[in-house]
Structure formats: C-alpha cells, structure tokens
User: Fold this.
Amino acid sequence: MASQSFEFQSLKGYRLSGRIEQPETTPRGWAILAHCFTCGKESLASVRVARALALNGIGVLRFDFAGLGTSGGTFADATFAADVGDLVAAGTAMAASGMAPALLIGHSLGGAAVLAAAGEMPMIKAVATVAAPSDVAHVLHHFDPDSLRRIEAEGEAEVSLANRPFVSRKGFIDDVRQHDLEAHIAKLHRPLLILHAPRDTTVGIENAGRIFAAAKHPKSFVSLDDADHLLTRRADADYAATIISAWALRYLPHLMEDLPQVEEAHGVIAEETGKGAFQLAMRSGRHRFLADEPESVGGMGSGLSPYELVSAGLAACTTMTMRMYAERKGYRLKRARTVVTHAKRPDEMRADLFTRTITLEGPLDDEQRRKILAIADRCPVDLTLIRGSDIETSLNESEASTAALESN
Assistant:
C-alpha cells in the first residue's frame, strides 16, 4: 500500500504537511482524516485508521494542523476556526490534484472540526466522527485551572498537554468558547456516522448522545465497546475503519466501469476422483482439468491448488482486460503477461495478499503504459476481490437422498 507526501497551503498562507494513503486498487473514493487535539498525522489512531481505510479501497489524506508535526504556522496562534479553515483548504487542494474528497472523518477535537467544516465543503457527501465532543469548549478540560487563569490574566501561558509543553493564548480560549457546534450539526445535511466508546474517560459517551440528538437523519451510532479514547489497540482502529468504510460505500461516488461487459461463464463443478487425498476432476462446460494440493501437504501435485486457481482467475482477467482496452484504444500492444502470487499475512487486517506483476510488450509510450496499468486495477476479478462478495450455499437434497438409498 503506497503512502506519499502531500503538501498544500492553508487559508492563512502557511504550508500544511500531510500524507496520502493510496489504495492498491482503483479508489472507491477519497477522504480527509482530522486528528485529535495536539496529536498530529503520525498518531497511532490517524495512521492505523487511514491505512485500514486504504485497505478497504478509500484513499485518505491525514495532515498536521498548524504548529504540529511538520506543518508550518505556530500552535500558539492556532484556533479552532483556523483548523476548520485548514480542512477546507485540504479539500480544495485534493480536488485540484484529482482526488476530490467525498468523506470527512474526525477523531476527538478533529471530529468537532469536520462537523463544522462540512457545511463549507460542497463536495463532501458524508461525515464520520470518532470520540468527538459535542461542545468545542470541551477541549479546555485538558487545561489545568491554574493555566487557564494565567492565560486569562496574562494573555498566554505554557501548558502541559498530553505530557508535552505548548504555549496557548487567550485567542484560542475565546475562540473555542464561542462556537455552537450543535448548531453546525443541526444544519449538516449530510449522512452522519458517530463512533464512540462507552468507557471513554477523555470525552464521555454523553457527547455522542448530544451529537446524535442534534443531527438530522440519516444518522447512525456504533459503539466502540471497550476501546480507549486514542484507539491505541490496533484491533479498535481497524474495527472503526472497517465500519466507516462499509457505511460510507453507499454515499461515495459510483465507480464507473469503462470496460466491455464480460459474458457470464458456465458454472464450475469440482468432484473427487478417488485418487490421492485431494485430487478433483474440474468441469466447466466442455472444459476439463484437475485440481489438487501439493505433495508437501498430502496431495499429489497433479493440478492447481485452490489459491492457485484464484490467482489464475486474477491473472487471466487482468491480461484479458488489458487486451480488450488496448484494442479498443488502438494501442500497439504486442503481448501482455501477468504473474500473480498469493501469500498470507496473519498479522494484517486483510490476511490474503495477491501480488501482481505485469509485462507489456510493444511500441507503447509512457502514457499508454500508465493507462493500461490503471485499467488492470479495474478488471472484474480484481474488483470482486477488493470489494468482497456474497456466497450462498445449499445442499442438493435429491442427490443426497438417492445416495442414502443406494447405501442401504
């Protein structure tokens, strides 16, 4: 999965630094992820949620707000309103780069920011929040009372936030107190997903209740069970990302298929031959072949294994799709070759990895090769593997009854 740097200019003129998590296939859509207060784009939650979303086919920009990480500006001059403006600037920059975002995701105070920013971003189709406060001023709970009093009296003070020293000014305090977030939520007019953990001790679950009550339908709430506020456990971040991607699918732009329709194939029959432990006679229409497992696991190695058959389907579909596309475009593609291998990654959310290597022969220029490779990511089998599919299973009752009678 590719990750690339992405820099853009804020509305106030300083540079903001981000990273794009790029899906390995044609993106189903693009999203912006706003991190929690003082966290930054490299926080565990930001990285894990963004990468998990990319695994589900949604490209994500995660960036540092002003004065954090590698972004310009100063934290002391930051305000909630400026963060909202930075989100708007991020959306404009992504759209200009051909990655117009349709989804906003915000964690903690970042969740409040996306709720406020969505109304200024017409391209946004849906909003998701994780552990977000219902009141922007909730962030002041992170300040000890003495620090707040010094800021009120002296205009600024050094405060300890997340065990790090920051200078905060009265402008920030005044700004967060003046925002009516529930009014923004009431006028959101976007589908809203709220994720929150009941045991969150940083931003209590009652905040999710108030956000839900203020929002208009369609709105959804999903409990994160025993997750902590920062989603420090990988399983919690992966779960949140999986829920968001599944929920957002209906609101993301439809992925147009610029491909010829593929004729529906015959069904495939796999029947035991009685030879060896696993050998199968495979039939589809007039075609016949064998499937088996390798000798290393008790088979005879007389045919392709099940995962080799899946890899074969992906390799064949990729090569055929590239050929159809090249013929339609008039490209002088002499020969195409696709090699697909399969491996297991037990520690990853998606344990199965299909690696595809493509060879294109012929007098093609760089742009033609780029377009052919792009269409390879959209072959029907590729899209089936990425998006997932349903499987229905039934028992052939008539043949089972006949077999039972013959055995008596």
Observations:
- The longest helix spans residues 306-329.
- The chain has a mean pLDDT of 88.
- The radius of gyration is 27 Å.
